[in-house]
Amino acid sequence: MNERVPIPVVAALLEDADGNLLLGRRPPTKPLPMRWEFPGGKVEAGETPLEALARELKEELSIQVIPGQAWPVYLHHYEKVTVEMHVFSCRLAPESPAPYAHEHMGLAWVRPEQLGEYDLAPADVPLIGPLQAAARARP
Question: Which pLDDT tens digit goes with each residue over 107-120?
Answer without folding.
Answer: 999 999 999 999 99
